[in-house]
Design a protein that fits this description.
Length: about 230
């Protein structure tokens, strides 16, 4: 029986990737003076982000540093101070963006918090994630919040041990099969995939896992029914 539900935050509880997509479009427009191939801008930015991931981690601040580095390289170090400042302002707008809850989240989280222990397990910048959780209006429903620098079997294992959660009684819910599902299945837990219409390239996998404890859902609204079947 599932007693504890882990919930990813970005693109599971609220919109996030759409904000990055919008910022990427503005960055491309800013760099058209130096590079007209939008696909190449995207490729160079992603390569820079991956190169810097170990240093900067995830989140808007990491994205911004990589965006500035990419802009400097693509412009042949000709980019102006005003244009770099525009990238910084773009990041500030992202950080100040409202927290837009996904459809069905409020009702589902409210219902499940009455019967299960809910734990937010997300990765990214600590201050930004804390801000979004506080502004979401959902914080009272969570027994705990874990903000990780990475999601893998080791980090999930530490979270489960810290909260005294047996893997067999744990269900992780999220939009990323790579980060939210596969590490938990490796520990003996269960995973419910709630797809989002955009997926960052770093989070993409070839396909869903063939595993008896993997449960694809149409939306988060399907979660109570799944838990009913599992119990």
């Amino acid at each position: 029986m599932i007693t504890t539900i882990g919930l990813d935050a970005d693109d599971t509880l609220w919109h996030n990737e759409t904000i990055f997509e919008g910022s990427n479009a503005k960055l491309r427009a800013l760099l058209t003076r130096y590079h007209h191939d939008a696909a190449e801008v995207d490729r160079r930015l992603f390569a820079t982000e991956m190169r810097n991931l170990e240093l900067y981690g995830y989140g808007i601040k990491s994205f911004t540093l990589s965006a500035i580095e990419t802009a400097v390289e693509l412009s042949g170090r000709q980019i102006s101070a005003e244009e770099i400042l525009a990238i910084i302002h773009l990041a500030q707008d992202m950080l100040a963006h409202p927290v837009n809850i996904l459809d069905g989240v409020i009702e589902t989280v409210t219902t499940l918090s009455e019967s299960h222990r809910l734990v937010v397990i997300t990765k990214g910048d600590l201050r930004d994630q804390e801000r979004k959780i506080a502004r979401s209006g959902l914080a009272a429903h969570f027994a705990a919040v874990e903000i990780l620098s990475e999601k893998n079997p080791d980090t999930y294992g530490r979270v489960l041990r810290r909260h005294g959660i047996a893997p067999g009684e744990f269900l992780m819910v999220g939009n990323s099969i790579k980060s939210d599902i596969l590490p938990v299945l490796a520990l003996g837990g269960a995973g419910a995939h709630v797809p989002y219409h955009l997926t960052w390239e770093h989070e993409r996998v070839d396909g869903p896992p063939e595993h008896p404890r993997f449960f694809p859902l149409g939306s988060i609204r399907d979660l109570p029914d799944l838990l009913g079947r599992l119990s």
